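Below is one record:
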Amino acid sequence: MPVYSMTGYASAQIGSAPEGSERESKNSSSIQIGLEIRAVNSRFLDLSFKLPDELRQYEPALRELLVSQLKRGKVEVRMSQDAASRHQIPEPSARLLQRLNSLQDSTLAWLPKAHALSVADVIRLAAAEQAPLADISQEQILTMAAQATTALLASRQREGERLGLMLTQRIEQLRKLAAQAEPLVPKLVAQQRQRFIERWQEAMALADSGVPPEAAQDRALTEATAFAIRIDVAEEITRLNSHLDELDRLILKGGEIGKRLDFLIQELHREANTMGSKSAALELTHISVDMKVLIEQMREQVQNIE
């Protein structure tokens, strides 16, 4: 399965009458329904709908469609209703004008201080009458929504592939840093062991306490062993490589892996921190810092993976 990002955008449109149809030639405008889907990252699936009152009835069906296709993300769905020929002024029919005149007379009889209808009011009512929403069926709405959802998934997949490639590159860089750190520990231990022996020999020569040289050397070796245990990062490197292997496996597997990736990134950061705290050489400290920089870059991108 591919890796999906939670970020994406898609849109689709449908009309109440085919272009050039007899119905469209009779009316000055036909209804157009537009749908937009915007998605960003979120811990869970968070759907929000911004629909006109005339289209509010389709929200349950749209919600069911999106829930079946998406797993995570903050998703905003917008639908709008426009006239296909919005630059043309609709011509009110005689029947509409008669009805409006009758309604206005009745209203003024009861409310003499009410304002009369303006030309703009009449044109707006005429546009609403000439582009009835009833011409749009629920099947058309769902077909449009399915097209937009498919386009959104394709957009999220393209972004997910880019994120997966970036993560794979960072994983390889972390492996190289771990390989550089691994041989440093035995070298540090050997150097420190020799340093302990030399310091104990100097101390015993100055103290002239009569302690046998063998006992002094054993004590120095014991201190060197304790130091080696404190600075040994072999276990951290082993766990770090194990986490990197799991990251590779999840990216190759794809699907809904964002939360698992986020957990592994936290574990990587923990191991890199431990390596830095155990560091007894500047070179190992630099490696730890470089690791944390790469891991932080990965953390930012993993937040966008579904």
